[in-house]
Specification:
The longest helix is centred in the C-terminal third of the chain and has 16 residues, at 265-280. The chain contains 14 helices and 12 strands. It is elongated, with a radius of gyration of 22 Å. By secondary structure, the protein is of the alpha/beta class. Helix 5 (100-103) links the parallel strand 3 (92-96) and strand 4. The strands form 2 sheets. Strands 7-6-8-9-10-11-12 form a 7-stranded mixed sheet. It has 2 domains: 13-142 and 266-294, Rossmann fold; 144-263 and 297-324, 3-Layer(aba) Sandwich (Rossmann fold). Helix 3 (45-56) packs across helix 12.
Length: 325
């Protein structure tokens, strides 16, 4: 074989190596830490999504990767868990939702990859989406172009719909932008909006009384971590009032809301595996733009529809990615 042909052959063979082989060129075991919400042993779909993404990039736990798991149950213990995590000195940290606010003040020196429901610029996590700056980057669940689709979903369920309620937390980064987008979408659809800000969970029951008194016929729940923690109460109050509810994450519907349309969060966390892969290969977090979701899902809770006496259009059920019965 001629020298030039031999070199060409080697180049082609190197390009054909699978990602897994490339990831395993180093004999060292790389150290990644996960910081999530929950308890050890409980179902963790977002963690499993991350694991799938890491595996696709060639990172195999027990072979070339150690994935250490750190769990907080909420606000009370997340600061202490974050300190323990950062002290373990991982090479990359992956955080779920508000856990990023426990990690950031500790100034870890490694890349920190987040999945975050709000606007990370408004939330002062990054300087900008395309140029994050610092060592934080990741993906945001915030999808303002889906706000109108959720309102259209309610109109399809309730053809005579005239007035909807917005239940939101003003403290959530990006909430004002989501509210503006909702107002514009409602006006375009010929609907009136009543806005109900929730500043403290103790206000929830009184807010639902006000929603009923205001003669709202459906409720749009802005998706964020705190409102998800209240989803059982929200769904119970809405069912008692016979109010259809729609939100943005599938797990809201899985826990009692009527329907959701929004990012597929399991796929979003799977995509975070790409960020971890690039960080482990030496790319700086500041060179990894923050991405927005690209895969979406419609989830409908048929049990909730029955509980409020609502018959849903067959076409809508046929287009759902998941129907809960």
């Amino acid at each position: 074989m001629r020298r030039r042909e031999f070199i060409t052959f080697l180049g082609g063979a190197a390009a054909a190596w699978p990602l897994g082989a490339r990831a395993q060129r180093s004999t060292s075991v790389r150290r990644v830490a996960w910081f999530g919400i929950g308890r050890p042993g409980e179902p963790a779909p977002y963690l499993e999504g991350l694991r799938a993404g890491l595996s696709e990039a060639g990172w195999v736990e027990g072979r070339n990767l150690t994935l250490s798991l750190y769990w907080a149950t909420g606000f009370d213990d997340m600061d202490a868990v974050a300190r323990t995590l950062v002290a373990s000195n991982p090479e990359v940290i992956v955080t779920q939702e508000l856990m990023i606010y426990a990690v950031k003040p500790l100034n870890p020196q490694c890349p920190v990859i987040f999945g975050f429901s709000g606007d990370p610029v408004d939330g002062k996590l990054v300087d900008g989406l395309s140029r994050p700056g610092g060592n934080l980057t990741g993906m945001s669940y915030l999808a303002l172009d889906l706000v109108g689709k959720r309102i259209d979903l309610l109109k399809e369920m309730l053809p005579g719909l005239r007035q909807i309620a917005i239940l939101a937390r003003p403290q959530h980064p990006g909430e004002h932008r989501e509210r503006q987008a909702s107002q514009a979408a409602a006006e375009k659809a010929g609907l009136a909006i009543s806005y109900f800000p929730l500043r403290d969970p103790s206000e929830l029951e009184g807010i639902f009384r006000s929603i009923v008194q205001d003669r709202c016929e459906a409720v749009v729940v802005f998706p964020d971590f705190v409102l998800f923690r209240l989803v059982d109460r929200i769904s119970r109050y809405a069912i008692d009032a016979k109010l259809p509810t729609v939100s943005g994450w599938g797990r809201f519907a899985e826990n009692g809301l009527l329907a959701t349309y929004g990012p597929n969060l399991r796929e979003l966390y799977r995509s975070l595996g790409r960020y971890v892969d690039r960080a482990l290969r030496g790319t700086k977090a500041s060179d990894l733009p923050v991405e927005l979701p690209t895969k979406f899902e419609l989830v409908i809770n048929l049990n909730t529809a029955k509980a409020i006496g609502l018959t849903l259009p067959p076409r809508l059920l046929a287009t759902a990615d998941q129907v809960i019965e």
